[in-house]
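Reopening this one. Same input as before:
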Amino acid sequence: MWIFPILGAILMTLATGTIGTALALNFVDADTRIGFVVMLLVSFGAVAVGVAGWMRIRKQSGWARWFPRREWGNIYIGLAFGLVLFGIALSIANLLIDVQAQWIGALPIFALFGWLVQGSVEEIVTRGWLFDRLKPWGEDLQVWGTAVAFTAMHAMNPNVNYLALLNIFLFGILMALIVRNKGNLWHVAGIHSGWNFAQANFFTMPVSGVSVTSASVFAVTASGPRWLSGGEFGLESSIITTVLLSIIIVREVIK
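Same output, byte for byte:
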């Protein structure tokens, strides 16, 4: 039954991610530059190990198809897209509400490695493993089912609200459509990682409600109605993000 793979993906991610985070925090301070990157690597590394272990037990394949060597350069296209997309969202916010930015340091490029692991692992679980498991029930369920699972994985994040969940769901729909059209995970791994890297390390804004205090280029504050500014959840809880994601989803659908 299709519900079991969805529940399995959610539970596997939450369980292994919690264990990995707890392990990392025993050895590092997540509020430091290196500590935060180590926490990302360990917590999402634990999720990756869990998925790989389960696939080995069940004798399931997918890695070569998800990340074909000849397509590896597309992760850079995805990274650029994610960075630009968040930049557009913030620029629109700047036109509608009061956005203040103060330069605080150089770009911590080392943090990108942590976000690449985080973004790639979440894509492996949802648009890789789960997407494949839902194939017998058709493409529509692959798209909707993976988006539901992705949303559920973030449902208990700090400061979450209904608009945030809607936008996370739309992001999940968009990533699934791109995977359906491209046939692999290189693009979406890049987009996911680039979006989060822009929020955390370009503009010091919350990533899905989680405040990031590691190194960044600008300290940005957005003041205005929560439905525009995103409030403490960040721009992922703004109607601006809703509109942008909806436009790109329509574009992917009509391709």
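So the earlier flakiness isn't reproducible anymore. For the record, Residues 6 and 240 are 29 Å apart (CA to CA).
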